[in-house]
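fold-stage: in
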Amino acid sequence: MDFHSFIRRYLVADTPTPPLSERIKSAVGTALGVAAVLCVTYLLFEHQYAMLAAVGASAVIMFAIPHSPMAQPWSVIGGYFIAVSIGLLALYTMMPPIVGIAVAIVLVVLMTMTFKCLHPPAGAIVIFVFNQNPADFSVALTVISSVMVAALLLVMLATLLNNLGLGRKYPQCLTETIKNLHRTRDELPTIRTGVTHEDLDYALKKHGTYVDIQENELINLYESAIDHAFSRKMNTLCGDIMARDIIAIDEAASLDDAWGLLHKHKIKALPVISKQRHVIGIITIADFLKDVASQSTHYRVGLEYLMAGSENPVTDTRPVSQIMTHPVITEQMNAPVSVLIKKLSDWGMHHVPIVNAQQELVGMITQSDLIGSMYQKIVLSAK
């Protein structure tokens, strides 16, 4: 093995190089965060309580890898608090500094991993506490205050700068799990054959070491890779499979008009469009049923209205906007069909209006369109 291969195999992290814009954002955010925290701590406390090492290390983590579990608010605040508390306890046991620091850091690592607030700069907090060597309660209180003020400031600055200045999401909150719309115990369609949290738990336990990524982020990465692979193999855009001769209805039309179109064309959904052909809503048979159910005293009349063959149909001149579903989830015609998988399965949607760059309605894709497209691709690839 030559020297270059040795370096690449054993010394260099196997991580993709982020874009230049992300590297600049990380550097600028770190510099601003450190400067702001140090200015405030210098004003509130004496200069020796500014914690240069810990603040600098924390800022790098929170601005360079804001998605990391170690960069989240609880990791910073909890890690700082546990570290300063254990550091002071170890200091007051009168152990030699080297032994006290070693014992304190062992306890900090154990405690922060146990309480899910592992934050590497917490180790610097322990050393900071021993360097201050507070002899009385007032000095110890100053040490604790300076540490916690720094932690809170870091979290506030990371939240503001990442979200408002750098265009990043922080903190990385847990995404709300989509519930089964049919209220049964079955998993969502894409989860039944995909990677679950149980699978990840098994893999992480088998891996045996701490992994610096949240489970939700790992699942998102996996799903993004699967979507990309699916799109690459399908090589199909929404515009390729959409129905183009779309029956739509104007926002000023009545419910009578909407029901007439649904019955005439034997379809289940009508996009509601503005004069500029922008999709402002969608009206389906389900919307009519909900409207009927909401008027329980007129339930019989409502059913009579829905019966296309009624001899004395009930007229309803209310505008479609009264019962339509809005806002509507649409998709661009040049988007890959893979973006529709979850919408037409987990999300419970049956129709997705397709728009162009001007947000004008140009087509519609249903579950049947997607299944037909996938079938054609599978058949053609097998031949």
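fold-stage: in (second)
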Amino acid sequence: MGRGLVIWFLCLAALLVGFLGARVNPLVYLAAGVLAPLPVLIIGWRSGEWAALAVALAGAVAIFCLHPALETIWQNLGFLNLLLMGVLLAGLQCRGVTAPQAIMLTVAALTVGALLLFLGQAVYMGIAPQDLLAQKSAEVMDTVRKVLGDTAEGAPGSLVPGVAPAQVEAILQRLLPGLLVTNMALVAWLNVVLSRQIIFLLGWGAADPPLYHWVAPEWLIFVLLGAGFLLLVPVTGARFFGLNLLMVVAVLYFCQGVAVVATWFHRLGLPRLLRMIGYPLLFLNPFFFVIITLGLLDLWLDFRRLHQPKDA
């Protein structure tokens, strides 16, 4: 009990240090925006879903106490959303839901919540959703420039060389919903992978089944085909929806492609150091699109032999 309480406080301290560091350092801001669910997931593995909920609530209360005002909640909504992600992932996995299903259910729930919040904000502000979307895309551009170290006087077009700032913002506005969902999915996936590795290294047990058994639902191929068909429809709204849906589905097949590569790494017995070098390379061009294709082909070629009889 005493050790569990110490671990609980260490996880809470990690949350608060990450949050405070993000306010002063752009690199810590980027790391905190990715790894905030990790302490919640770890304590969930160690002490259960109620401990995970308690550490997330304690972190949220501590953040609010720094400046007790409604403005504090709005300013840190993204960080609080990550804490909620950790709670949902921990709760689902504690209830026996497999990691891939937990990730998809969590992302779906957070996406619905974000959509309702977005529409509610548009109604509250009295503006059209598309105008609020343009405003949000401009805010995202400002955040990216801040993280990259650009000054307000710098050329905003430097984010994408050779492309005018207005065109960059227009592209971002079209892709923003899909980018947010795919980013959420990748953050959830990364935190689940890291938490499983950490609990294994700490000797708290091995998660089962391993994540390299990830398999996207077979019906997802019809969603992919439907998204591609929507891109051919001469209606702006249909193309907008199809493009963003295509991005989300592509990330799911990317995860399956990474699982295929992880299986090969495991069968070859590659040292942990080489795996730590290899996995980040999968996120870079052109490997990213190759991995998506690999995940898609795995549906028919079954590279991991997951669908063969056990006595085969």
